[in-house]
Amino acid sequence: MQPFRFIDLFCGIGGFHQAMTSLGGECVFACDIDEDCRKTYAANYDLVPAGDITKIAAADIPPHDVLCGGFPCQSFSKAGHRLGFDDLTKGTLFFDICRILEYHRPKYVLLENVRNLASHDHGNTWRVIHDKLEGLGYNLLSQPVIFSPHYVGIPQHRERVFIMCVRKDIGKIAPFVFTKAQMKPCSIESILQDDEEIPGIDHYHISPEMVNLIDLWNEFLQNIKADRLPGFPIWSDRLCDLNPHEDLTQYPVWKQNFIRKNNALYVSNRAFIDAWLIRAKQNPLFFGAKAKLEWQAGQTAHPDIWQQIFQLRPSGIRVKVNTYFPALVAIVQTSIIGSRRRFLTPRECARLQSFPESFQPDVKQPQAYKQLGNAVNVKLAKFFALYMFGEVSADAFD
Ligand SMILES: C[S@@+](CC[C@H](N)C(=O)[O-])C[C@H]1O[C@@H](n2cnc3c(N)ncnc32)[C@H](O)[C@@H]1O
């Protein structure tokens, strides 16, 4: 790779920075509106990012070869549809990317966004982005590439769109084909820290009441008599006889369906469930979302939540197979590793995002989780940069 200069817009904690510097790039400008992100970035990369992109003139940004950005996804106003591209994108952060491209005309552009961008606003958002980038003089694929770390052995399910652009006078982006046969197996063990090496590990452990609650739900799963483990959410307040005075049609059909399934499960396990509910209600956590269970870990003769990973969600305790984690998100509450009876640590989240061990997350833990949940996966950013530069083919993911 030739040395090159890049800019890191909406830089967060520098997923793109990690990827591009590992390819020999030099970061000449970064910006993020969030002060904590800027501090983490400065502490790790010795470069203080600027703030709000909307307040920065393109002329104040140094020349560069590559523009990188994981920009927040926003709708384009309907009013703009009739008025043309500029009115369509004005007021959105994509507009700021466009004005910088117009001014600097870098050779390459690498953008990342949520998967929903491809279908957002009935495909209109993507069409506007595509046509606008093309109009600015870039070649790009007609559809964005959708890719997730778990496709290539990194145990996080995080489908994101990657938009690769090359200036028309330089070349084209080759059609990207990645098939199921190329997928690699994942194991959550590959990113876990040894418990002994985690400072203040008690902080990550779930509470004794939570352990008891999971034991209770395990007992439920292991003792109910049914052909299959429930594929529907188990709502403990619906594990009862139907109330003849309640008009179920007041609920949407999906909810009626779940209520009836919970009732059927109850009717065929009445004695066990009655006794179980008496004990479950003695646990102080057994209310609201924790009194609901979503078993999404497939059919097995010996269901055991401790062997899987689970999340505390508003819809219930959601149990997933222990091969890969659900996407990190910009909130504090991470997945719980059943076998360890604890939450993921910031270091493990950094590993899920393929940040190197040298990366220092924010010392304020809520911020660290949020920032890592927002970041782009470093290995994926690096791979798509190489693909965009024409240096690798789709089957060369390392
Ligand atoms: C999806 S995150 C990008 C994360 C980044 N790619 C990384 O690897 O950490 C989007 C970022 O855009 C930032 N942002 C939102 N509005 C902004 C603005 N007007 N100017 C600069 N940054 C902005 C947010 O603070 C957030 O960190």
What does this entry look like structurally?
The protein is built from twelve helices and 13 strands. It has two domains: 4-184 and 359-388, Vaccinia Virus protein VP39 (Rossmann fold), CATH 3.40.50; 194-344, no CATH class. The longest helix is centred in the middle third of the chain and has 16 residues, at 208-223. The chain is elongated and about 75 Å long. The chain is an alpha/beta fold and 398 residues long. The strands form two sheets. Strands 1, 2, 3, 4, 5, 6 and 7 form a seven-stranded mixed β-sheet that branches. β12 (336-337) and β13 (342-343) form a beta hairpin.
CATH level 1 name of the largest domain = Alpha Beta
Counting structural domains, the number is 2
CATH superfamily of the largest domain: Vaccinia Virus protein VP39
Helicity range of the residues? 25-40%
For the report, how would you describe the main beta sheet?
A: 7 strands, mixed
Low-confidence stretches: none
Euclidean distance between termini CA atoms = 17 Å
The whole-number mean of residue pLDDT values reads 93
Q: CATH topology of the largest domain, what is it called?
A: Rossmann fold
Q: Give the helix tally.
A: 12
Overall shape: it is elongated
Residue fraction in strands? 5-15%
* Associated small molecules: S-adenosylmethionine
Based on the coordinates given, report the CATH architecture of the largest domain. Answer: 3-Layer(aba) Sandwich
Total strands: 13
Indicate the structural class: alpha/beta
What order do the SSEs take from the amino end to the carboxyl end, as H and E? EHEHEHHHEHEEEHEHHEEEEEHHH
Over all CA atoms, what is the radius of gyration? 24 Å
